[in-house]
């Protein structure tokens, strides 16, 4: 198994990805890692200690966070992000991981790697923490703003296969994100999607409200268009960050609070980890004809390591071929 890593993408590149890759290389001796980026910076980040199953591929071209995605992919063919995508497209790597420009990763997936047959629009599928600790797979979280009802049904089929083989859920429950549970609720796309999902071979449980989605007890997979999904994703992240910050501030606001905080520190850390997005790894672009995992832009070494672990499981469980088979079976 070979993993191509865009080491120059993300807020803490290249230190965070390099540290994570070096750690992962020691944990997964059967995996080859290719770090792509400025070699001098990569060596400095690794402090000269590169594991035997890690190789470096030099480039000093980087796609910035504010670059226009399609133009950047076309004009910066030697960037670390595009080089990683080319490795997947050429069969040099089984999967790529990047924390870079989301739009550029999507563009590279479409233009360089290509789409699976019968998939019109790929979807970004992160796992959101839920109150029951199971997590929920949300898609699309921002790849396609204006999706069709048929796109949403395709997302549901792909997400079901991913949930089975990566999240280890035997018969994933699929919900349609909506403003109410009644089948007559919602906008035009939700109303048109509901009967299509009802008639599908999926384990469709009906419309799901956002509060039910976060509870985690109703559905394992929730589908929506990319505009709504991205708003939900960022709102959930913002609430989580604000909640943890508020609790920490409260526990350090006075001497007695600090004493109480020292007593419950272990439980608070356990609580924080349960709802920390970093523990859930990256988000796959489902529908791309190759392994493509998007790590969070602000990923620290721990979040990077989880994304690498997720990418490894994606390949080890042959998820790509299972997605292809699911799409073929759906056409029959």
Automatic annotation (TrEMBL):
Keywords: Acyltransferase, Cytoplasm, Lipid biosynthesis, Lipid metabolism, Phospholipid biosynthesis, Phospholipid metabolism, Transferase. It is found in: Cytoplasm. Its main location: cytoplasm. Pathway: Lipid metabolism; phospholipid metabolism. GO terms for molecular function: phosphate:acyl-[acyl carrier protein] acyltransferase activity. The keyword Nucleotide-binding does not apply. The keyword Cytoplasm applies. It catalyses: a fatty acyl-[ACP] + phosphate = an acyl phosphate + holo-[ACP]. Its EC number is 2.3.1.274. It comes from the Bacteria. InterPro entries: FA_synthesis (IPR003664), Phospholipid_synth_PlsX-like (IPR012281). It holds the Pfam family FA_synthesis. Homodimer. Probably interacts with PlsY. Catalyzes the reversible formation of acyl-phosphate (acyl-PO(4)) from acyl-[acyl-carrier-protein] (acyl-ACP). This enzyme utilizes acyl-ACP as fatty acyl donor, but not acyl-CoA. Belongs to the PlsX family. This is Phosphate acyltransferase. It comes from Alicyclobacillus fastidiosus. The gene is plsX.
């Amino acid at each position: 198994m070979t993993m191509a890593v865009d080491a120059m993408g993300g807020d803490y590149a290249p230190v965070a990805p390099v540290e994570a890759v070096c750690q992962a290389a020691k944990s997964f001796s059967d995996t080859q890692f290719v770090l792509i980026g400025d070699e001098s910076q990569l060596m400095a980040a690794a402090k000269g200690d590169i594991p035997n199953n890690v190789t470096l591929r030099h480039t000093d071209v980087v796609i910035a966070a504010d670059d226009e995605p399609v133009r950047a992919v076309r004009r910066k063919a030697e960037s670390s992000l595009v080089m990683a995508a080319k490795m997947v497209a050429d069969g040099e790597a089984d999967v790529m991981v990047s924390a870079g420009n989301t739009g550029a990763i999507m563009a590279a997936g479409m233009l360089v790697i290509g789409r699976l047959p019968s998939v019109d629009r790929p979807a970004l599928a992160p796992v959101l923490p839920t109150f029951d600790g199971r997590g929920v797979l949300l898609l699309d979280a921002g790849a396609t703003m204006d999706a069709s009802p048929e796109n949403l049904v395709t997302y549901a089929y792909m997400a079901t296969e991913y949930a089975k083989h990566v999240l280890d859920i035997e018969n994933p429950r699929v919900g349609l994100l909506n403003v109410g549970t009644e089948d007559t609720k919602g906008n035009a796309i939700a109303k048109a999607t509901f009967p299509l999902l009802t008639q599908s071979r999926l384990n469709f449980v009906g419309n799901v409200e956002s509060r039910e989605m976060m509870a985690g007890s109703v559905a394992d997979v929730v589908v929506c268009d990319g505009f709504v999904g991205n708003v939900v994703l960022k709102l959930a992240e913002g609430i989580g960050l604000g909640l943890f910050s508020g609790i920490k501030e409260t526990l350090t606001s006075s001497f007695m609070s600090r004493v109480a905080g020292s007593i419950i520190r272990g439980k608070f850390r356990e609580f924080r980890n349960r709802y920390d997005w970093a523990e859930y790894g990256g988000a796959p672009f489902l529908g791309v004809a190759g392994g493509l995992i998007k790590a969070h832009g602000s990923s620290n070494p721990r979040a990077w390591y989880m994304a690498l672990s997720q990418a490894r499981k994606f390949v080890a469980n042959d998820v790509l071929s299972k997605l292809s088979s699911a799409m073929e079976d759906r056409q029959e």
